[in-house]
Amino acid sequence: QLAPLADRTIAQLQTLANPEPLHLSNPVDLGAVSPDTWGKALQALLQDPDTDGVLAIVTPQFQLDPTAVAE
C-alpha cells in the first residue's frame, strides 16, 4: 500500500503541472513535463513526511527527452 501524500506536497505538485496532471495522489503522474519540472516534482516528493523513497518511471513521449530527465 502506498502512503497518501501530504496536502503541502500535493499543493507543490499542482504548481508544477502542465496544464493539468493526470494523477496527483500516490502514485503521481505528471504527464509530459520538462526535465526541470521533473526535478522539482522529485524534490517535493522526497520532502513529503510520509515518503521513504521515490521510483521515477519516464516513458518516451514526443514532447519529452527522457535522457534530459535522467540527467
Could you walk me through the main structural features you see in this protein, from its secondary elements to its overall organization?
This protein is mainly alpha-helical and 71 residues long. It is built from three helices and two strands, in the order αββαα. The chain has a two-stranded antiparallel ribbon with strand order 1-2. Strand 1 and strand 2 form a beta hairpin. The longest helix is centred in the middle third of the chain and has 13 residues, at 35-47. 8% of the residues are buried.
Note the topology:
Elements: H1 7-16, E1 23-24, E2 28-29, H2 35-47, H3 66-70
Helix pairs in contact: 1-2
Quick rundown:
With 71 residues, the chain is mainly α. The chain is built from three helices and two strands; from the N terminus they run αββαα. Strands 1-2 form a two-stranded antiparallel sheet.
List keywords for this structure.
single chain; about 70 residues; mainly alpha; two-stranded antiparallel sheet; 3 helices; 2 strands; about 5% strand; globular
